[in-house]
Amino acid sequence: ATTPPPVYTTHFAGALTSVSPTYTRHGGSGSFFYQAIEVRVPVTGEYTFTASGSIDTFGYLYQGNFYPSYPEYNIVKQDDDGAGSSQFKITATLRSDLRYILVFTTFNQLETTSFNVAASGPGSPSLAAISA
């Protein structure tokens, strides 16, 4: 019998508040609070990002840079309700030599909330808040 490879999980806790930056999310209109999170992975492979919170979430994964004024640039994946219970789930193959940005936002405009994101994959992902 073969042993499955280990899966490493990292958690990120954050909050969207009335002073969080805003943008018009790709595919939406109006203003949305967001948190940009830098993602680095030590091992190339498939990683999954799952949101958990009390409101309807929306997630975007970007390769390289995230430009709030041009949210359509550099998108790798996006999701609304893939994890069920109105929470996003994004699965993508990430390379260890590239930088990624995970953008946590909401489905509805200007909502505030605390939230958690779990990132799992073949290496322990590094998740760090990016200031606007």
Topology overview:
Blueprint: E1 8-16, E2 22-23, E3 32-40, E4 45-53, E5 57-63, E6 75-79, E7 89-94, E8 100-106, E9 113-121, E10 126-130
Antiparallel strand pairs: 1-9, 2-3, 3-8, 3-10, 4-7, 4-9, 5-6, 5-8
Based on the model shown, name its key terms.
mainly beta, 0% helix
Give your account of this protein's structure.
This protein is mainly beta. It has no helices and 10 strands. Strands 2, 3, 5, 6, 8 and 10 form a 6-stranded antiparallel sheet that branches. It starts with 7 loop residues before the first strand and ends with a strand.
Q: Average pLDDT, to the nearest integer?
A: 95
Q: How much beta, percentage-wise? A: over 45%
Whole-angstrom Rg: 14 Å
What's the number of helices? Answer: 0
So what's the oligomer here? single chain
Largest sheet: 6 strands, antiparallel
Separation, N- and C-terminal Cα atoms: 49 Å
Structural class: mainly beta
Model regions low in confidence, pLDDT < 50 over at least 5 residues: none
How are helices and strands ordered from N to C? EEEEEEEEEE
Number of strands: 10
**Approximately how much helix is present in the residues?**
under 10%
Tertiary shape: globular
